[in-house]
Amino acid sequence: MHDRLSALLDCFRLRARVFHTGSLCDTADFDAHDGVGHLHVLRGGTLRIGDSVAGETTIDEPSLIFYPRPAPHWIRGEGTQGADLVCSSIELGADAGNPLTRSLPARLVLPLRDNTLLRGTLELLFEEAFAGHCGRQAALDRLSELMILQLLRHCMTAGVVAQGVLAGLADPRLAKALNAMHGAPGDAWTLDGLARVSGMSRARFAAHFHHVVGTPPGDYLADWRISVAKTLLKRGQPLKNVALDVGYASASAFARAFAARHAGTSPTAWLSASGASPSH
């Protein structure tokens, strides 16, 4: 099967930064102001975790806790030994509307006892975290990135999410249409053309896509184009070039489509608010 994640990861670069390894006995608070997600890997002990969306829960077995989008939450080691943890911040294009982060739940908790896909990476992560080898930080960061990639694969193959782009990519027919849009956002895709790519009738494709992905194909394509454009703008590409690259005939046509999805905000205003400088 065609690589279902590469185009998404090319657009939204995955970056991890490990900031804690070891025992946690007190409470650690996290907010959403830094604009990153978080990954907490529980090696041993008992961890209490809470947020305003998923509530509070106690985890007492090795588990992966992933917040794919910026979210206020807290974690606390319980008992006399606390919790043995590796924690990292995760950047995955949530601010640019990455459909991967949108398709995941606000908090994902994955017990690790039966997960063979992550076992090798986990062993390496814990060895690097607690052995003190040279180049430790770089190794931990890259291993955390690999773990997120493997988690995304797991979400597709194990049916962890029922709706969204990961559910669509797990569907062999819908994956063909999604791969086509992801790989060539500037092409003049039509509903008929995408249905042909997927090997389905026009009506069946439209209904099935909406049911599985959660949005009509045309809306998904428009959102994907805007997301790609945001990434290109933040990388310093001129607005006119970006508009053409994502399928708009002119910068003004792109600006109108952008504003329609951002409460009237122009691309340059959005870019300035994000902290980047417009390129002309």
TrEMBL record:
The keyword Transcription applies. One of its GO terms (molecular function) is DNA-binding transcription factor activity. InterPro entries: AraC_lig, AraC_XylS_family_regulators, Homeodomain-like_sf, HTH_AraC. The keyword DNA-binding applies. SUPFAM superfamilies: Homeodomain-like. Keywords: DNA-binding, Transcription, Transcription regulation. This is AraC family transcriptional regulator. It comes from Stenotrophomonas acidaminiphila.
